[in-house]
From TrEMBL:
This is UPF0042 nucleotide-binding protein. Keywords: ATP-binding, GTP-binding, Nucleotide-binding. The lineage of its organism: Bacteria, Bacillati, Bacillota, Clostridia, Lachnospirales. GTP binds at D59, I60, R61, S62. Gene3D superfamilies: P-loop containing nucleotide triphosphate hydrolases (3.40.50.300). ATP binds at G8, M9, S10, G11, A12, G13, K14, S15. The keyword ATP-binding applies. InterPro entries: P-loop_NTPase, RapZ-like, RapZ-like_N, RapZ_C. It comes from Anaerocolumna xylanovorans DSM 12503.
């Protein structure tokens, strides 16, 4: 039997993850009292009921009883039961924004500020995050992207890395993305904008892609960038970083940056990290 404990920050997507696991055939129980967890594990592993896959939601709503969880997990392990911990996280800025959009009250903020409740919650959940087998940062994830990650790990049983990479194309004329970790300027490449046949196409179109990649500098840039990322990413992971935003910019964010972001995405697939590509400015200045 597979037992997954789903936990994490309020607003990071725990409820959504539980629904996704339920859709995948897991028997799901949310917010079970901490004192009943050990008995629940005994029952589900006993064989009296047919439970092949079980997901148990635990979070800050357990109150002071949450402090007992560490000891209970030790007992579960000691008695030979196996479990996995899935921890959902997101940046403070994203969590605050989600709470403001939904007008919900953070369970630890009371009548105070949401930021204070989030800070207190992080401290209280720190011990269980350290025990987590899988940490998914949902700050940059769409619901369908979270579902894809859940399916890969808990349905298809693919190996998962707690490191997630976003490759983002953009136009310098619209500003550098604020959440960038690494920024690369590809305005040194020939610009398809000045070719009348290509001006109104984008890097997602084959003629533009072929034009950009025809320049020998493009292939050399991609080779050097891939080598650098191959060195950087393992060292970021060692230092505890769990996500990386790689921004690639050209003038308008439609041609060169889109092409190279797509090519980098294709190359990084082989590294088996969580990965997605976005084109922030591709629709701007579109011909009416």
């Amino acid at each position: 039997m597979r037992l997954v404990i789903v936990t994490g920050m309020s607003g990071a997507g725990k409820s959504s993850a539980l629904k996704m696991l339920e859709d995948a055939g897991y028997f799901c129980v949310d917010n079970l009292p901490i004192q009943l967890i050990y008995k629940f594990v005994q029952i589900t592993f006993s064989g009296n009921e047919k439970f092949d896959k079980v997901a148990l939601g635990i979070d800050i709503r357990s109150g002071q009883a949450l402090e007992e969880l560490g000891g209970i997990l030790k007992e579960i392990t000691k008695d030979g039961y196996h479990y996995e911990i899935l921890y959902l996280d997101a940046s403070d800025e994203v969590l605050v924004k989600r709470y403001k959009e939904t007008r919900r009250i953070h369970p630890l903020s009371g009548g105070g500020r949401v930021e204070q409740g989030i800070g207190t919650e992080r401290k209280k959940l720190e011990f269980i995050k350290k025990k987590a087998d899988v940490i998914i940062d949902t700050s940059q994830l769409l619901t369908r992207e979270l579902k894809s990650q859940i399916d890969k790990i808990y349905t298809l049983n693919e190996k998962y890395s707690n490191f997630y990479i976003t490759i983002l194309s953009f136009g310098f004329k619209y500003g550098i993305p604020m959440d960038s970790d690494l920024v690369f300027d590809v305005r040194f490449l020939p610009n398809p904008f000045y070719d009348a046949r290509l001006k109104h196409q984008t890097g997602n179109d084959s003629p533009v892609r072929d034009f950009v990649l025809k320049a020998p500098q493009a292939a050399e840039f991609l080779d050097k960038l891939y080598d650098m990322l191959n060195f950087l990413i393992p060292n970021y992971i060692i230092e505890g970083k769990n996500q990386l935003v790689i921004s690639i910019g050209c003038t308008g964010g439609k041609h060169r940056s889109v092409t190279l972001a797509n090519e980098l995405y294709s190359r990084l697939k082989s590294l088996k990290y969580g990965l997605k590509v976005e084109h922030r400015d591709i629709e701007k200045d579109a011909r009416r």
